[in-house]
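Backbone-to-sequence.
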């Protein structure tokens, strides 16, 4: 018997009502929510504060777990190798992903997701504007299929960040330097003849 494909979901609470949020989770048969916000509170959407959310989820038989160890808001690293990220918060999180603590938290998440249909929760509606897209990169490399919930019928399969590089199991997001072509003539359209020295030479 072939092993079941490893699946995990993500969602951003955005400005949803609790009812809308729960409808999305049930539509995708989510059984556990793992909150990857560093601070499990929302000033503008208090319905997603940890204690209130935990109660609402419990009423519909969905478990809740706050994993602060996977949260954002990380400290900068002076010698960062993740300069491909212009966004400083993403670069700092990419630095954190290279630490033993992140690896430990990620393994803990994997164990949970192997047992229960799990969804990562953060605030941003769009995954590419949220650090959960970086977590999705790490999970994808560990052979997980990560789906970003967008509606009751749609959960988009995660695609790895284009400038992600992996060396000896370590993820980096280096700055991609575009190489100049060796032959500068390649930059000039063929319809434009290159003037040579003899044409430009002044008559004596």
């Amino acid at each position: 018997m072939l092993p079941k494909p490893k699946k995990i979901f993500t969602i951003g609470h955005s400005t949803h009502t609790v009812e809308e949020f729960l409808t999305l989770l049930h539509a995708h048969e989510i059984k556990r929510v793992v909150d990857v916000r560093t601070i499990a509170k929302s000033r503008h959407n208090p319905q997603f504060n940890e204690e209130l959310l935990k109660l609402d989820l419990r009423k519909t038989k969905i478990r809740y777990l706050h994993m602060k160890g996977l949260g954002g808001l990380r400290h900068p690293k002076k010698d960062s190798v993740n300069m491909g990220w212009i966004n400083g918060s993403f670069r700092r999180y990419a630095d954190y992903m290279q630490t033993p603590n992140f690896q430990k938290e990620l393994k803990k998440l994997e164990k949970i997701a192997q047992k229960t249909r799990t969804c990562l929760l953060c605030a941003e509606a769009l995954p590419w504007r949220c650090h959960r897209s970086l977590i999705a990169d790490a999970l994808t490399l560990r052979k997980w299929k990560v789906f970003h919930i967008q509606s009751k019928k749609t959960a988009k399969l995660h695609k790895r960040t284009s400038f992600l590089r992996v060396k000896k199991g370590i993820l980096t997001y280096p700055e991609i330097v575009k190489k100049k072509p060796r032959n500068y003539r390649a930059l000039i359209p063929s319809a434009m003849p290159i003037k040579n020295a003899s044409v430009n030479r002044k008559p004596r």
